[in-house]
Amino acid sequence: MTVTAGIGYALIALGPSLSLFVSVISKKPFLILTVLSSTLLWLISLIVLSGVWRAFLPLKTTAWWPYAILIITSIGFQEGLRFLFWKVYKRLEDILDAFADRVSKPRLFLTDKMQIALALIALAFVTIHTFSMVIAFNGYAEGNKVDQLFVPVVHMVAGMVTLINLASGGCVIGIPLLYFLAVLTLMHCGKMVWRRLTETQSRERSS
């Protein structure tokens, strides 16, 4: 009964807010960020207010006016933060609108192209290094020379491939080659993991 009552009370208090979140807010990432940031701001305001009022609490009086001052100052501070949050929100909204207008009519400058190329190269190397680490650790553990040599060879080849980018238009050739190495590393890692799983299952059946 206690659990049921607790759930009922929680739904009474939070049900409408939860319904609003699921039906409206959860479908829009920007609204989710707005809710999270406003919640954080509200918690910060409570922490600041509790720190300020800590010197005066508990109130050793039965009069009502000290509590009125506490409520008025707390609400005033939070409403001031709310207005500040709204100003920041409007500023951010204007920035995002301007960015959306620019994206609708994109203009790729040389720096934009370079950044895109660097991002693609970084993604390829992250993929190579992630799965190379798995391959290398397995090779060291099993004493598998093929796996131990595969990792430094692929790393060296990938590093040398980046030299192609120094040539004019070299990214058109260099980036696909990097992704070929990334796919090769992924396939080798997948083959190794499949072999380990098969061996483990075989040992479990035999035991």
UniProtKB/TrEMBL annotation:
Pfam family of the protein (one): Aph-1
GO biological process: Notch signaling pathway; protein processing
Keywords associated with the record: Membrane, Notch signaling pathway, Transmembrane, Transmembrane helix
Family membership: Belongs to the APH-1 family.
A GO CC term attached to the entry: membrane
PANTHER family recorded: GAMMA-SECRETASE SUBUNIT APH-1 (PTHR12889)
Protein name: Gamma-secretase subunit APH1-like
Position of the signal peptide: none
Superkingdom to which the source organism belongs: Eukaryota
Membrane topology reported for the UniProt record: Multi-pass membrane protein
Main location: membrane
Originating species: Vitis rotundifolia
Transmembrane annotation, as ranges: 6-25, 30-52, 64-85, 116-137, 157-186
Phylogenetic classification of the source organism: Eukaryota, Viridiplantae, Streptophyta, Embryophyta, Tracheophyta
Subcellular location: Membrane
